[in-house]
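Might you be able to review the protein record set out just below?
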Amino acid sequence: MGRRYTVGRSFGALLKDRGGNFGIMAAIATPLILAAGGMAIDFANVMSTKNQMQDAADAAALAAASSLVANKDALTPEKAKEIALNFLKAQSGATSTDVPGGTGGTGAVSGAAAGSPTDVQTQPTIDIITTDVGKSDKAYKVNVINRQSFQLNAMTRLLGKNSINLETVAVAESATETKNAMSMYLVLDRSGSMAFVTNVKDEKRTKCKNWTADNWGKNISETSPCMVDKITTLKSAVETLLKPLATMDPDSKYVRVGAVSYSSSIFPEEKLAWGTTKASTYVKALEANGGTDSSGAFIKAVADLKLKGETDAHAASNGLKPNKYIVFMTDGANTHYNGKALTLATPPKPEPDLDKYTPQDSKSDTETLKACQDAKDAGIRVFTIAFMAPIQGKSVLKRCASTPADYKAPENADALVKDFGEIGATTSGKMARLTK
């Protein structure tokens, strides 16, 4: 009896003893703490790796899409797939030589880098879908899935998993010329302020009359250095815009361009015609003089683009429904309406933030903005460029543009040329673009 009592007391004391609890809990918690630390490290590394994988996938998709357009007569989708896989090889270890050829459904090319059967899930996949466009050209959609096995660190492996599979997706689209059959109207300011100087030195002349807002209309002498004026810069900018259009349509079957200019009122237009030559010649002959009234010129551009005959011309030539654009440029505020000067409020000085500015619309502004809305309602995309313009001119053009991104406000010559060039690249569709 006494022995059993002693044993019972000893066992009870053992149960009540807390002396070893910390050591037991530490032994249990340590692997979890280490695993949590490992997961934190791996999370940062996984995000960095995925960013690198996405960059590689984007580059691969764009490379394949661009090559198909640039070499449409010489490059097959199979070859373009190899180009994409080589981009992945450079950044993520995939090899184009390991990729067996293969075809998916009609118009598709697929492939995955070969490896052991156990790591198929970590191999990249390239799909190229080809679609006929119009009578003779094609559009391409390149899908790139980049995969990689990420090895977890030793601490994270305490949770029982050695690696995870990562995946990123990129989609790029491109097309040969007919993808962007178009009709474009240039609506250009040729008012007196377009004779004012820019910030660019004229390397062809040592002296000239450098017109500014302060000396305009006065009897001034030629001075040195001679600065390039706005109207000359505009001519260069238009050429930059038209160049990719002419390149994508060398046979003048898909692009129609017209032009109209204005100062105190509308000038005779260059009607919409195939190719870019007539519009280019029209712009090169522009001279700066007079006030500013954009309403009549913009209304004319919208009316001509909306004519049924304009859409029918494309149907007969290329079998496509054209995208329609207006490129609307001014360097000032509207000062006239139908040739008559307007009484305008004195512009604020200094100019306020454009987003906080309350417009004071003139009759010309109102008619221009009404025509802008008419264009947008008709599906015409409106690009606007306020070139070194005052607050009122910027306000009208910003509201006229189809989207905020379609409004530009260059403050120097180089920026004007760049903005016109970007419009040319965007509307021509010659460059491949990422869509995902």
Observations:
- The domain at 179-434 is CATH 3.40.50.410 (Rossmann fold).
- The chain has ten helices and 15 strands.
- The longest strand covers residues 137-151.
